[in-house]
Amino acid sequence: MRHLAFLVLHAFLVQAHSMPEQDSIPSDRTTERKVPVKEKIKRTGSLLYKIVKSFDDYDTDYISPNYYNYTAMLQNTNFYQTYRMAAKDKKGNEQAIHMAPGPTLKLGPYLGWRWIFLGYTFDIGHPQRATKTTEFNLSLYSSMLGIDLVYIRNKGDFTLRKATGFEGLEPTAVKGLRFSGMDTYTSSINLYYVLNHKHFSYPAAFAQSTVQRKSCGSWILGVRFDKQKIHFDYNRLPDILKDRKDNSAGIIEELKVRKIDYHNYSISGGYAYNWVFARNCLLAASITPALGFKHAEGERVRGDEFWMSMKNLSFDCITRLGLVWNNTHWFTGASLVSHMYDYKRDRFTLLNSASYLNIYVGLNFNRKRQYRNR
């Protein structure tokens, strides 16, 4: 050990003796130190570029790339939302109330540069309700990864559709009646991975940035986070749903829910398929169920309840349908993306959905340099 320590000390002294004095350091030493930093930045940028580029790595025998730099499009967006609140009393009698806000009808232009796409749509269906409803939806598609972002806020703009289980009342007796006693908030983020991304293209069906040339499918795996808040004032329901003077039963106690506030963590797995039924024509469909754990705000859950209690489990789902004609220069089509949310507590159930139907027509222009000779 002493001999080893002596060798180490000797090597240190030799190294220190061989180092130049501080005064002998060249004046441009500072410049020499900056060069490695620039090189590291350049290498890091190159690595990040390769990672991003790998998101769209695919087999050109199955998928044609986008030959153009820019995209111009006119799109009609239709937004639909539904709510179903149901409950059972101690005797097993069930009541359910179906309601929905008025559908929104939007129209507007979009302009894209490669993967950046910006646009604005105007509500031409019910512009007077714009102050009561805030809705934002963003879906980003690449060959390998995808992400869905949803934000919806409704401040009491609902219409009753039907009510079942109420004694002596036809289910459609409340159809069309306005209901301002419910405020809702929904936010959601969904991140997923496409296993067969080299042969299957989500962008071909929902982003018009590539063209699927051969029919192909893929399994989808993902993670998802949702948060919902609902304030429900049953006193604002129509009188025919509340206690009536003829002694017939009105709304049951289990349905008189004042507040729902929860967040949900889930994993998802599903399947998607692109069917090329004619040249430049594509029909796409996918379904991705999600199994997760719901946690109500302020609720404490023990470890055994986390894994064993069925009331804390959620079964949500995202469904996509798309029909596209795309010859790489011009394109037109329609797509439907639907998000379903499920909430259960004891004898109470809430099921709601948010769906987006897009109808569009557009063109790609300014051919990329590497494709100009084709």
Nutshell version of this structure?
This protein has 374 residues and is mainly beta.
- Assign a percent range to the helix content: 10-25%
- Give start-end ranges of low-pLDDT stretches: 1-25, 27-32
Total E-strand runs: 18
- Gyration radius, rounded: 29 Å
Q: How much is the average pLDDT?
A: 82
Structural class: mainly beta
Distance between the termini: 73 Å
State the helix count: 4
Main beta-sheet strand count, sense and barrel state: 16 strands, antiparallel
From N to C, what is the helix and strand string?
Answer: HHEEEEEEEEEEEHEEEEHEEE
Beta-strand portion reads over 45%
Shape: elongated
Q: What does it look like?
A:
This protein starts with a helix and ends in a 7-residue tail after the last strand. 14% of the residues lie in helices and 52% in strands. It is mainly β and 374 residues long. The protein has a 16-stranded antiparallel beta sheet that branches. Strands 1-12 form a two-stranded antiparallel ribbon. It contains four helices and 18 strands.
